[in-house]
Amino acid sequence: MSFARLSLSRLLVLVFVAPGAVRAQDADRVDVRVSGTILLNTFTTSRRTNNFDLPQFVVRPSAADSLSDGGGMGMTVRQTRLGVRAFWPDVRGAEIRAELDTDFFGGQQASGFGDLFALFRVRRAVVDAAWSRGSLLIGQEVPLIAEYNPESLAMLGFSGLATSGNLWLWLPQVRGSVRVARGSAARLDLEAAVLGAGSNEAQGELFTQPDRAEQSGRPSLQGRAIVRWGSAERPGDLSLGAHRGWLATSGDSLLASHAVAAAWRIPLGSRVSITGEAFRGAALTGLGGGGIGQHLGVGQAPVESKGGWSQLLVRAGPAVSLGAMWGMDDPDDAQLDANGRLKNATWGGSISWSPAPFVSALEVRRITTTYRTGALDALHLNLALGVSF
């Protein structure tokens, strides 16, 4: 372990810290930690969905479902996760944190056995400099206005509540924060971010082309006010924020992507917590599936949508947790074509038993997707087993 820590320390010093900063302090003061979760997910999905092992919405029946309703049972290890964190306590007056967060949820090779050889993927890669009254972050991180995801061992690859109210996607960005008020019990921060534009349109395997958001020639902008309280072990916060982006269209005009969003993380005593988000806006697929993945509708107009999610967690013991979650995304029906997804809702529950270093959880989700022809339901059951370090 000491050899691994030393090697990774030297590597991260070279990558993340400017030469002048390295000379200003001894590199041995860098604290580097490697973490990860080796995870096996065994699951069953009752009918065809957009993704077999981590479904988000139900897909209407097709000729491909001739043997059944399109469901099945499977096993995967591609939600296995690896991370590296580095911390410098004092680099020219700032605390510096660097983190690389990865998994194997990058897809599969186009072959009969490709799903057994999952592709490596970067989730988050951030450098954060913090001072007493503010901070600066650069890298790839969650949206500023919607930074939470449900706590789950069945939904590590991406949020299973995406397209059900969770604006989850990791996005390249530069983010700044200023503390404007601090009391004995709470503090108020104002934050702003410039994000890489994106509309979540499909790309090729290697070479990319600009999507509608990138063709606008403008980045996305976000800002929020956030009140924080509590301790590092039991944090609480409540925020209100706004998003603005642009999409290219024919001629010289641009379409607007916009949203207002609230987020909350509220501890209730020592064992119970509630986390969640709510939003209202238009053309939000670039934030990870808002509008049930439908950003433009009839006449190429931005699809307006509203939604949100929440999760209740109860720490029933040192290694036992109980959870319940709900999420919903409801686009404007009149703006969608005949094949549009009119509403998507997800209910779920979980029980986890994780005596260190082992982790395990049994989770169930019911997904209801509404089309003009009616509502379709799918049941997803997931048993996760693994080790965290």
Supply database-style keywords:
single chain, 389 residues, mainly beta, Porin, 16-stranded antiparallel beta barrel, 3 helices, 17 strands, 6% helix, globular, disordered N terminus
Number of strands: 17
Low-confidence stretches: 1-9, 11-26
Strand order of the largest sheet: 1-3-4-5-6-7-8-9-10-11-12-13-14-15-16-17
Q: Look at the helices and sheets and give the structural class.
A: mainly beta
- C-alpha Rg (nearest Å): 22 Å
| Overall geometry | globular
**What is the CATH top level name?**
Mainly Beta
Topology-level CATH name: Porin
Structure description:
Helix content is 6%, strand content 51%. It is built from 3 helices and 17 strands. The chain has a 16-stranded antiparallel β-barrel. A hairpin with a 3-residue loop joins strand 11 (254-268) and strand 12 (272-282). The longest helix is centred in the N-terminal third of the chain and has 15 residues, at 2-16. The protein is globular. The chain starts with a helix and ends with a strand.
Question: How does the SSE layout of this entry go?
Answer:
Layout: H1 2-16, H2 19-24, E1 31-47, E2 70-76, E3 81-91, E4 94-103, E5 121-130, E6 134-141, E7 171-182, E8 186-195, H3 212-215, E9 220-230, E10 235-248, E11 254-268, E12 272-282, E13 304-315, E14 320-331, E15 343-353, E16 358-371, E17 374-388
Antiparallel strand pairs: 1-2, 1-3, 1-17, 3-4, 4-5, 5-6, 6-7, 7-8, 8-9, 9-10, 10-11, 11-12, 12-13, 13-14, 14-15, 15-16, 16-17
Summarize the structure in short:
The protein is mostly beta strands and 389 residues long.
